[in-house]
Amino acid sequence: MTLPKYRRIAADLETRIRAGEYPAGSVLPSQRQLSAGYDVTLMTMRQALQILEADGLIAQQAGRGTFVLPMPVSHHLQSLRSLADELSAQGVALRTDVLGRQVRQLPKDVGARLGAASGARGLRVERLRTVHGRPVVHQVSWVPDPWGTQIRECDFTAEPLYAALERLSGLAVARASETLHADGLSARLAGQLELPVGHPVLMTERTTYDEADRPFVADTAVILDERVRVVTERRPASVTNRWQLT
Length: 246
Prior knowledge:
It is a single chain. By secondary structure, the protein is α+β, with helices and mostly antiparallel strands. The protein has helices at residues 5-18, 31-38, 42-54, 83-89, 108-114, 147-150, 161-169, 187-193; strands at residues 58-61, 65-68, 73-76, 94-105, 121-131, 134-144, 175-184, 200-209, 215-223, 228-235, 238-245. It has two domains: 5-68, Winged helix-like DNA-binding domain superfamily/Winged helix DNA-binding domain (Arc Repressor Mutant, subunit A, Orthogonal Bundle); 73-245, Chorismate lyase-like (Chorismate lyase, 3-Layer(aba) Sandwich). Helices cover 28% and strands 37% of the residues. Strand 5 (121-131) and strand 6 (134-144) form a beta hairpin. Helix 1 crosses helix 3 and helix 2 packs across helix 3 (42-54).
C-alpha cells in the first residue's frame, strides 16, 4: 500500500532532521518554501508537519516559524532488543555501570518467573544506566544456571547481556513478557542514588524466552528519570508503545 504524500514527506523530513541537516534549535524553511520544494499544497505540508510535531521532533510557533527540537530518546516496548541496544542504535551515549554481580540462590518470585526448581541458583547482575550523566534506569537481571555462570565474567559495561548470552550460551531472544507499573523508590535505591524514599518511579518486569520457549532472563528495571513517558500510537491495524525521554 502506498503511503499518503504527507506521510512520505514527514518521513523524509524526519530522516533529514536525524541526519543533522536541520539540527536542534534550527528553524525549518517556511511552509510555503517546503510545499514548493516537495511540490504539494500547503494543506498537505501542514499535515506532514503535524506528524513531526506529534512525534516531538518540531514545535510550530505562530509568527516565529517551525523549530527543530532536541532529538527524543525512545525505547520501543514491542522491540525484543535491550534498552541499551535501542539507545545505541539511535546514537545515544548510554553509560552502563555494573553495581554488582553474584551467583546465588534465586529469590522465590524470580524462580517462579524462570520456572526454576526450589533452591536453583543463577547470576544476579545489577546495573545503572545513565544518559548524559543523568541516571535513567536501574536494572537487576537474573540469569539461571548453567547460563548465568557461563557469562559471569563478561564485561557488561561494553557488551549487552543478551549479546553475551547469545555469544557464550547460544541463547537467542524469541519473545518476552513485560509488565509496567508505578511505584515508589525503595529505601535501598534511594540511598544509593541520593533520592528521597518513595520518589515516584515507573517499574518494568520482563521475562525473556528463547526459541525453545525457555525463560532465561528475569529483569526488573526502575525508570528513574521523570522525563520518561510511555507514548502510544494507535493505527487501524496496530498499536505501538515506546518509552520517550524528552
